[in-house]
Amino acid sequence: MFLIQSLDAYVIKIAHRGASGYALENTLEAFEKAIAMGCDGIELDVRRCASGELVVVHDESIDRISNETGLVENLTLTQLKNATLKNGESIVTLQEALEYINGRVFTDIELKVCGVAHDIVEMINNLIARGFNHSHFIVSSFIHEELAKVKTLNENVHIMPLFVAELVDCVGYTKNLKASYVGMAKEFLSQKLVKDIHNNGLRIFVYTVNEPVLIDKMKNLGIDGIMSDYPDLI
């Protein structure tokens, strides 16, 4: 069983939207490839569709990934399931994705929209009641108020605020959210920031790093985890 806590001296390998450099993003094929490549975690994206279910899609629309068009929020689950993805699969719900991954690695659930915190926590709680544990999940987002709601609903759920730039007090902001992880764009990492994060008992994951030279640079900075479309390169 994967345990995030057991990786103190290890660079955590996180497959960005699955092994999306080798298979269509956010699909079961991409998830399976990531696991076969020895990743520790899979990052995936969550939106709510018109009929209320949470589905694993990155973009606002399905235009780029399927043979159909339309906004996720305007399409029912039936309509989304009827769209053929470019790898021949169908769009999966978050529930389906988590059950497919089945705790073989941890899942980084990125919230792309507001108003889903309650459903996310309820889903995690139900899976924990079935034998999963909190180390199987991280909930991340650029929508930090949604992460605060997650923490209010279940303080044991791991959360990770994502930052596209370094804030004046990134560490203080993260601690105020009661988060354990910082998700930072690779362009804004520095030795000072990494040290500050570690000195405050936090861990830092960096996204999205695909080039071997940059992967080595991130490792030399002492980051805790790397998100990549090519997890086998980490």
Give the integer mean of the pLDDT values: 94
Total number of helical segments? Answer: 8
The CATH topology, please? TIM Barrel
Anisotropy-based shape: globular
Q: What is the rounded Rg?
A: 17 Å
Class based on secondary structure composition and strand pairing: alpha/beta
Q: Count up the domains.
A: 1
3D architecture notes:
There is one protein chain. The chain is an alpha/beta fold and 234 residues long. It has one domain (4-46, 95-233): TIM Barrel, CATH 3.20.20.190. It is built from eight helices and nine strands. It has helices at 28-36, 77-82, 94-101, 117-129, 144-153, 170-176, 191-199, 212-221, and strands at residues 12-16, 41-48, 54-56, 106-111, 137-141, 159-163, 181-185, 203-207, 225-228. Helix 4 crosses helix 5. The longest helix is centred in the middle third of the chain and has 13 residues, at 117-129. The model has no long low-confidence stretch (mean pLDDT 94).
